[in-house]
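QA checklist item 7 of 12: single-chain prediction sanity check.
[x] sequence parsed
[x] length recorded as 369
[x] structure emitted
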Amino acid sequence: MYVAVKGGEAAISATHDLVAEERRGDTSVPELDVSQIREQMKLACARVMNEGSLYDPDLAALALKQSQGDVVEAAFLLRAFRTTLTRFGSTEPVDTGAMHIRRRISATYKDLPGGQILGPTYDYTHRLFDFDLVERTDELPKARTVPAAVDVAMPRVPDILGADGLMEAETAPAGDPRPFDITRDPVEFPADRPVRLQAMARGDEGFLLGLGYSVQRGFGGNHPFAGELRMGEASLHFTPPELDFPIDIGDVTLTECQMINQFAGSKDAPPQFTRGYGFAFGHAERRTMAMALVDRALKARELGEEAKHPAQQEEFVLYHCDNVEASGFVEHLKLPHYVDFQGELELLRKIRGDLERRLRPAPSAEAAE
């Protein structure tokens, strides 16, 4: 046993060296710097920060480099580091209405108050390869200037509808209690909306995208409109215990999406629009849109709607959207299961043996003589 363990340790140590070699790749090619990943792969860093539950572009870039670009592994690294950090408090609620907007669109109003701001997006590209990117260059496109963020508070479309009484009202619970924290306490069902939003905020983007797509294809019971999608920088304010007023501790890049959905009304509510909400670190439009679609689908219980589709089943969504947990369950199958398999192998042989004996024809009387 001791020799086997030592042999296993040596083999594992060798795999570490092989991983480092694979990560580096061809040494004739310049090595990627963490700052290059942070600045030039911002969308990948944003996904890692969301699924890793930690806003830190530098660490997200490091995680991507260390994991060879494996987003799930990078998120795992970030979450593991997160558990070592001391939590010293919570910020004040973020006012996204006052963010410095770099992108803001709505599919519901052509003449949107404050205007449509297209900003940085791939929505209007042709999805053709730009082979000029093969040649390394630090030059920006000529005769173009990058617009600064719009430092003007712009009303959100759902708020405009709410002023006319056409949008469901959303108010904080009495006393504005601290939200449930899914990173500290186990989730119980039925889960409140803050719990669902927390789980989805760090859920796997691909899983949420698939569920959001299912809602659009009729497996959600509502017809969504992209009420507003905005991205920019918002200030974080924190009130230290030794002070009685909040202080500005910095800006973070955020993306917010609010989906608008028809609601026929119920015995307690008149016909109106309802909303689905998505919120994420960094520039993460696909994630927030999918999250908003699923959020609205999960509100079926509160709105008295029939919950019959996968995206409306909160236990299914919340238990399976976490890619770090899902990855652990799937990849643990690579670990040794020798004893379990041998047990099933012996059981299968016994069952087949019993079946063959039962099906074996009985000897005839002549053969018996």
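[x] summary fact logged: Residues 261 and 274 are 5 Å apart (CA to CA).
[ ] second reviewer sign-off
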